[in-house]
Design goal:
22 helices, 67% helix
């Protein structure tokens, strides 16, 4: 079963409203003023209470400084007041102080301090803090990486109904991190989050339907669309793919291009590559090699291997640009060093003929060998032809280089 690598999403948004007081307190008038949008009056009422040591007022004052309500926005002052309330045990303030340390807002970034305050809030049962504490264990920040402990904290928050925690818990079940892999449980938790409108979970649930042995593209499209319509870039890319390939929807290149463009605007390199392919092949648009080059380059310059490889092919064939073997070799190499078999085979071919690179059968054999081992269908046949023109010493050296090759290594 394909496994997806997902960075668990921490609930990091600061609280943006006043703490609700219990019973009649002087904070009632401040809350009423804030609710009506009169932040200047709210500030006048809250500050004296905060200075007298009221933790709820200190928390509210921190919110106002962070949000710039009734006062100029000041993350340093926000951190100071959250700190005062946090020291008195206010769980909201502890969480917010953890967020500020987590992201270096108003304080120096400090994972250890973030962990400390998340833990204090989480131990009082505050679900966003439980989620962020789980995230610290999930990524080994200020603590040893511990998926089982991450799972424990995610579950606490998920059982309180917090969508990001439900999503994280589902992802851990799907990837078998900290728990036995269980697709049914993954779908259960991701669906809970997705049904709350959490876009990351909607996209992830769609991907589970795509990857399932009994693929259900119609159900996948439903969830991809929900995520995409919320502006989720992964959902937009996945929906574009379904329209391009006619999976779960009638094939529609115009719709594919629409969603690819939205995803590309949100920085998705796969979408930029998809647009390039459509211009390259004339799918739903007039064939335009110049536009294809433009979009391949946009993705390639951010290190997307398929775009790097195709940009190399454009230079090798002279489509949309003057033929330039050296530039083709440059882009093939970038993709090859990241492990793309097609680019490895193409780079090997350039070494055979000394086009854009020195004629070098050892490196030709080496790259073709690596490509063949990674599944390129034609590399082994070409490698065998090259071997006929090589000495045994050259073949041995090429085999050594191939055995030592690993992604990211320059050759």
């Amino acid at each position: 079963m394909p496994k997806m690598i997902v960075r668990a999403l921490a609930a990091i948004l600061l609280m943006s409203s006043f703490a609700a007081p219990v019973g009649a307190t002087p904070l009632d008038d401040a809350n009423a003023a804030a609710d009506s949008g009169d932040y200047a009056k709210a500030m006048q009422l809250v500050r004296p209470l905060a200075e007298q040591g009221d933790p709820a007022a200190q928390y509210d004052l921190g919110v106002m400084y962070y949000a710039g309500q009734g006062v100029s926005r000041d993350a340093v002052e926000a951190a100071r007041w959250f700190g005062k309330a946090a020291e008195q045990g206010d769980l909201n303030a502890q969480y917010n102080l953890g967020v500020l340390y987590d992201h270096g807002l108003g304080v120096a970034q400090n994972d250890t301090e973030a962990l400390k305050w998340y833990r204090k809030s989480a131990e009082q049962g505050y679900a966003p803090a439980e989620t962020n504490l789980g995230g610290m264990y999930d990524h080994g920040r200020a603590v040893p990486l511990d998926h089982a402990e991450a799972l424990r904290w995610y579950r606490k928050a998920a059982e309180q109904g917090l969508a990001p925690a439900q999503f994280n818990l589902g992802a851990m079940y799907y990837n078998g991190q900290g728990v036995a892999q269980d697709t049914a449980e993954a779908m259960n938790w991701c669906r809970k989050a997705a049904e709350q409108g959490f876009a990351m979970a909607q996209n992830y649930l769609g991907q589970i339907y795509v990857d399932a042995p009994a693929q259900d593209y119609a159900e996948a499209v439903k969830w991809f669309r929900k995520a995409a319509e919320q502006g989720n870039a992964d959902g937009q890319l996945n929906l574009g793919l379904r329209y391009e390939n006619g999976e779960g929807v009638p094939q529609n290149y115009a719709e594919a291009m629409k969603w690819y463009r939205l995803a590309a605007d949100n920085g998705k390199l796969g979408a930029m590559y998809g647009i390039a392919l459509m211009y390259d092949n004339g799918e739903g648009v007039a064939q335009d090699f110049g536009e294809a080059i433009n979009w391949y380059r946009r993705a390639a310059e951010h290190g997307f291997p398929p775009a790097e490889s195709n940009l190399g092919l454009m230079y090798q064939s002279g489509k949309g640009v003057p033929q330039d073997y050296a530039e083709a070799a440059n882009w093939y190499r970038k993709a090859a060093e990241q492990g793309l078999p097609t680019a490895q085979a193409n780079l090997g071919n350039l070494y055979i003929g000394g086009r854009g690179v020195p004629l070098d059968r050892v490196h030709a054999y080496m790259w073709l060998s690596v490509a063949a081992a990674r599944g390129d269908p034609n590399a082994e046949k070409i490698q065998q032809r090259v071997a006929k023109a090589m000495t045994q010493a050259e073949i041995t050296e090429a085999q050594r280089l191939a055995a030592e090759w690993k992604p990211g290594a320059a050759h």
